[in-house]
Design goal:
- The structure holds 2 protein chains of 2 kinds.
- Helices cover about 10% and strands about 35% of the residues of chain A.
- Chain A contains 3 helices and 25 strands.
- In chain A, helix 1 packs parallel to helix 2, helix 1 packs parallel to helix 3 and helix 2 runs parallel beside helix 3.
- The relative contact order of chain A is 0.14.
- Chain B has 8 helices and 32 strands.
- In chain B, the strands form 7 sheets. Chain B has an 8-stranded mixed beta sheet, covered by helices on one side.
- In chain B, a hairpin with a 4-residue loop joins strand 30 and strand 31.
- Chain B is globular.
- The chains are: A mainly beta, B mainly beta.
- The interface between A and B is large, with 60 and 66 residues.
């Protein structure tokens, strides 16, 4: 069952001195700790959607508590899932193969940018500028990302369950440890945009300093992933068109070592069919998913978070052992939400395994997972051939990966899908079925030999008419049970899946819930 | 309550007395009085004075001291003769009061303001001095420079991110240019570090506001507080919450619980002017000294009472000089400090540490100050001082004055406060000047609605409150405090006329009232005893020697829990002593009981 809150819970840096022995046991102070734990659970959320050039990524509304994120709280990570034109599902007729590409999401505005040039064969082959490409944007939301002020870096302290039993004194140690732990849980995981890099550079540790308390992460605490910025000269500050002799674009590759070393390469096929590796071609934007090493190595199972009422610890009330135990449980679950797994490089048709928390042994369900993926290889042939089209997706129901990297030889072929995806799996306990969208399927024109087509995905788009607040069903009209249903961009509110059935669709309907009247949107229904 | 020397307090107890008033204008050679004091430079030319009234708008974050005037006879045209050589307008003016027979050093300071104008009166035989409150300086516009150095507007925002009470001081000192000495920083910081610890506001200002408007509406109203001017002319604050944690400054008194070898058994603390604490386990001594790092050039002394026994703390003593053992955890630079004053204590007993008199200077006779360390100049705490490691105790609310039929002039008419049982907060504002708030919370006091079937609403738009910074919880806290005062048509008195003995009462003071002729509607009987009220409006009627106050029910203060956070050595309930059970907080079962069926202690 997905966790939702009735209130928006925030953060407060409460000094341990408020919990000194012989100070009054203020209910407001205990409630502040509870608020911090609930804030910690919701603080880092990840949303995703498919966009095209010119789109602006909307500011998310939290499905947990309705919190409206501001642009300052968002970091945009992207991947060109599909290189083709969204309307036609293919490259522009007669444009040959890809020449060079540039993708970006402006961190300050959320504006999506996709520039894909095509080029025909031969010396002086015609060139076509397009805004093809369907970009998956992950909006990584971190509440009060730069606003929180911490007087000191909190640390985690072990709390004994025996100290939280009936008749136990509410000691300085217990109170201060709960206070510290709740604050630590709120800041233990952070995601950083590290900047743009080209081959041979290193992501410096200076990019991994928390704006909250100045904590300096080590490489061992970071998981890196790279988004492609452009495929031409990476040393330039803006994209520069390749020279004529480089011909057309071939596969491109990227990886980041655990110590931030950037490895990027781009292949091209010149007019004589020779494969070249232009020096320093390719530029990537790097993001780091970090967890502080102060996180304990083991904890009791932490999956029983429950929201406290704002008045649970109000002045004049008693301090129930059950509430203190629940507070401790909330802190632990918040600490482990989210958990990052990877990065791991996967091949086409691999299945991403369901992870198990190394800290409390929680085995995640598929509905609790999000997959942050970026192309680490668009390999299509050995040796590298021209790359006219590439696309990929992940089946959220099964974790199966589909990577299709076409080649242009004598004709367009999809027969050697050697592409690879770097994936960071994000586990969020208590998360309902993920509201994700995938792009429209590729649609090769009829003159492309169908026998060479690889496996793709077929998506039907179903409009969601203006809603009435509350639960509702929507017929998808496919006559069979979909493999996956995703909720697309929506207007005027939030549409989410009902908690049950699981999955929230069957052979006829999709089971949805609207936060308000009059919301519209779309469903992506995958066969 | 206005602080006064002990001699004033003792003399003030008498019901029959004749007040003397001294009006002093800064830089002016003549002091005006209503009594022939026989002191050189003091002239009993006072003819008349208006009532001096402060009106509190506690629900709007502000207050108003009405313009006040006094009239002085121009004896032999001597004041007229002073005009060419002295400009009265803009000068600070103070009013002090004492009693006949009292040394003037023991007089109480009642009012500090500014002379606004001087008018002729009584067919030009007198002068009427018109005085205004120091808050008039707060009409100026603040935060006029944006983050990027441009004038603040919608394209150039001024961002403020911090504790609202730090923002308050910044607005007063850095923006309005008010000297630090003209602000009651001790109290403001006490709230910041006390019941409001950890609160954070963030503003994005797109239009420079007037200081007074911003402070009242955006900083104090959302915290359930208000701005006022105290008797020293300082910008001051009061809140519905009463628990404060006094701040530590250079030059303040520092206390330390130690064992017999002088090793601290608990972090040191600054007692302020009056605090009662329990000696912790292991303590056999209370050591007292001055917070400084260079003692040899200090001068003066304080008289401090510990459970009523006076000790003298000379300016050259440190709170501890032993540097071995655990004291290495509390380092400071000890430059020839004298040994501390030592008072024997017994662990577990309560000790009241009370500043009585005296002033201390930190440097060659300059800047003398009381035990708070903040008079007349605030010096920031530095790491080389013993107070750097201080952990401050909480000061809890208590009645400062008992109102009864001996000091009331007439029986007061019992009234009901206007009902407020619904409070709406609006927060998550993107710019300071707009009314675009992303989050709105509404708290309703259900028992009140059920009881009366009526609604009274308070709406608070707080541009700095953020839901992501516990704004929703803060809204609930403040709403709860409002309901305790206004949610039950609480008892109030618009005006109670008291004898001059009550002249030291200030807005925000807690008083207790006993009268056989005031109805107790809750109990359904005529007569109340020891019922707590808070002082709001106050008027000094100098002519009739009366003090008129507006009181509002504060009985909720008597219902809060008093349990303390337990020392780590406290055993479980079933093994605890009766004293430990009565003192500390213990975890209980879901029936709000301990395992033996005893009712569990309650949170404060």
């Amino acid at each position: 069952m997905s966790i939702t809150f009735t209130e928006i819970h925030g953060f407060s840096d409460l000094s341990d001195t408020l919990f000194d022995a012989d100070d009054p046991a203020f209910g407001d102070m205990v409630q502040t700790v509870a608020e911090n734990s609930e804030f910690a659970y919701a603080r880092l959320e990840i949303f995703q959607g498919m966009y095209v050039n010119g789109d602006t990524v909307p500011l998310p509304l939290s499905p947990i508590d309705g919190y409206q994120y501001s642009i300052d709280e968002c970091t945009f990570l992207w991947n060109p899932d599909i290189s083709t034109n969204q309307q036609t599902g293919w490259i522009q007729s007669g444009s040959g193969s890809l020449f060079f590409c540039e993708w970006n999401v402006d961190q300050a505005t959320g504006n999506v940018f996709s520039l894909e040039w095509y080029r025909n064969n031969g010396s002086g082959g015609s060139r076509t500028q397009t805004n093809d490409g369907q970009i998956r944007v992950y909006t990584i939301c971190q509440r009060q990302r730069r606003t929180i002020i911490l007087a000191a870096t909190p640390t985690w302290n072990s709390v004994s369950s025996g100290d939280m039993a009936v008749d136990e004194p509410f000691t300085q140690n217990l109170a201060q440890h709960l206070n510290d732990n709740a604050k630590f849980a709120a800041i233990a995981s952070e995601v950083f945009y590290c900047g743009e890099f080209y081959n041979g550079q290193t992501v410096g540790l200076g990019t991994l300093i928390s704006p909250l308390d100045g904590y300096a992460y080590s490489y061992a605490e970071a998981s890196f992933i790279a988004c492609w910025r452009w495929t031409t000269d990476g040393t330039q500050t803006m994209v520069v068109q390749p020279p004529e002799q480089f011909g057309q674009l071939g596969p491109f590759y990227s990886s980041i070592s655990p110590t931030g070393g950037i490895s990027v390469s781009v292949t091209t096929n010149d007019n004589d069919g020779n494969v070249t590796f232009p020096t320093n071609y390719g530029r990537v934007a790097v993001f780091a998913f970090c967890r502080r090493s102060g996180t304990p190595g083991s904890l009791a199972t932490s999956t029983s978070l429950a929201e406290f009422a704002l008045t649970n610890f109000a002045s004049g009330k008693t301090l129930r052992a059950a509430d203190v135990q629940q507070l401790d449980a909330n802190i632990r679950e918040a600490l482990l939400t989210p958990e990052f797994f990877g990065p791991t490089v996967y091949n086409n048709l691999d299945t991403i395994p369901v992870p198990t928390s190394p800290i409390d042994g929680h085995v995640y369900s598929r509905s609790e997972l999000q997959y942050i993926w970026c192309w680490s290889s668009t390999s299509n042939w050995t040796p590298n051939a021209r790359l006219p089209v590439f696309y990929g997706s992940i089946n959220y129901t099964t974790g199966e990966i589909f990577l299709n990297c076409w080649r242009l030889g004598s004709h367009y072929s999809d027969d050697h899908d050697n592409g690879q995806a770097t994936i960071i799996v994000v586990g969020r306990r208590g998360m309902g079925a993920i509201a994700t969208v995938i792009g429209t399927t590729t649609s090769p024109p009829s003159d492309v030999t169908t026998s060479t087509l690889g496996s793709g995905v077929s998506v039907s788009i179903v409009d969601i008419p203006p809603t009435t607040r509350g639960d509702f069903t929507l017929a998808h009209g496919l006559g069979t049970t979909p493999a996956l249903v995703t909720i697309g961009p929506m207007n005027n509110g939030l549409i989410r899946f009902q908690a049950s059935p699981n999955p929230p669709w069957d052979g006829t309907n999709v089971y949805l819930n609207a936060s308000a009247d009059g919301i519209t949107g779309i469903l992506g229904v995958v066969l | 309550m206005i602080s006064v020397p002990a001699n004033f307090s003792s003399a003030n107890v008498a019901l029959l007395k004749a007040p003397i008033f001294l009006i002093t204008i800064a830089g002016y050679s003549r002091v005006f009085t209503n009594y022939a004091t026989g002191v050189g430079g003091q002239y009993d030319w006072l003819e008349a004075y208006d009532d001096l009234q402060i009106t509190i708008s506690e629900m709007d974050g502000g207050s108003d001291i009405q313009n006040w005037s006094f009239t002085v006879q121009d004896f032999q045209n001597l004041i007229t003769a002073d005009f060419p050589s002295f400009t009265f307008e803009g000068k600070s003016v103070t009013v002090m009061t004492g009693l006949v027979g009292m040394a003037q050093v023991d007089f109480a300071l009642l009012f500090t303001g500014v002379i606004d104008s001087v008018a002729s009166a009584n067919e030009n035989l007198s002068y009427q001095f018109n005085c205004i409150d120091n808050q008039q300086t707060l009409t100026q516009v603040i935060f006029g420079v944006a983050d990027d150095g441009f004038p603040t507007d919608s394209d150039h925002l001024r961002t403020l991110n911090g504790h609202p009470l730090d923002i308050l001081i910044a607005a007063l000192v850095d923006e309005a240019g008010i000297p630090a000495t003209a602000i009651n920083q001790a109290k403001i910081n006490g709230y910041r570090d006390g019941i409001f610890a950890g609160i954070q506001f963030k503003f994005e200002i797109d239009s420079p506001p007037a200081a007074k408007d911003f402070i009242e509406a955006q900083l104090l109203k959302p915290l359930g507080g208000y701005l006022w001017t105290n008797n020293k002319g300082q910008i001051d604050v009061n809140f519905f919450y009463k628990q404060v944690r006094p701040a530590v400054f250079s030059g303040c008194l520092i206390g330390a619980w130690t064992d017999s070898t002088g090793q601290l058994v608990r972090a040191p603390f600054a007692p302020g002017l009056d605090v009662t604490l329990k000696a912790p386990a292991g303590a056999t001594q209370l050591q007292l000294g001055v917070n400084d790092h260079f003692w040899t050039d200090n001068s003066g002394s304080w008289v401090i009472a510990v459970n009523g026994s006076n000790v003298t703390v000379n300016a050259d003593v440190a709170p501890w000089t032993f540097t071995g053992g655990i004291n290495s955890a509390y380092p400071f630079i000890d430059t020839s400090a004298a040994a501390p004053v030592v008072v024997a204590v017994t662990a577990g007993n309560l000790y009241r540490i009370q500043y009585i008199s005296g002033l201390v200077s930190l440097h060659l006779g300059a800047v003398f100050r009381d035990a708070n360390g903040i008079e007349p100049q605030t010096d920031p705490l530095v790491s080389s001082e013993p107070g750097w490691n201080a952990v401050q105790p909480f000061s809890l609310p208590a009645s400062v004055y008992s109102i009864n039929e001996d000091n009331m002039i007439v029986l007061p008419l019992a009234e009901q406060a206007d009902l407020i049982n619904t409070v709406t907060f609006r927060m998550d504002n993107t710019t300071g000047g707009s009314s675009d708030y992303a989050v709105e919370t509404t708290d309703e006091y259900a028992p009140s609605v059920a009881l009366y079937g009526q609604y009274g609403t308070q709406i608070i738009e707080a541009a700095g409150m953020r839901s992501g910074l516990q704004g929703v919880f803060l809204a609930e806290r403040i709403s709860s405090m409002i309901f305790r005062r206004y949610g039950s048509k609480n008892p109030m008195f618009t005006e109670i006329d008291l004898l001059w003995s009550a002249c030291l009462l200030e807005p925000g003071d807690i008083v207790d009232m006993s009268s056989a002729h005031v109805p107790d509607r809750i109990a359904g009987v005529m007569g109340i005893s020891g019922k707590l009220f808070e002082v709001f409006d106050r008027t000094w009627d100098f002519n009739d020697g009366l003090v008129k106050v507006r009181l509002l029910d504060a009985s909720y203060l008597a219902t809060a829990g008093t349990a303390l956070i337990a020392e780590n050595s406290v055993p479980v309930w079933t093994s605890a002593t009766s004293d430990e059970k009565a003192t500390y907080m213990f975890l209980c079962n879901t029936s709000d009981q301990q395992s033996d069926g005893s009712p569990a202690p309650k949170l404060d």
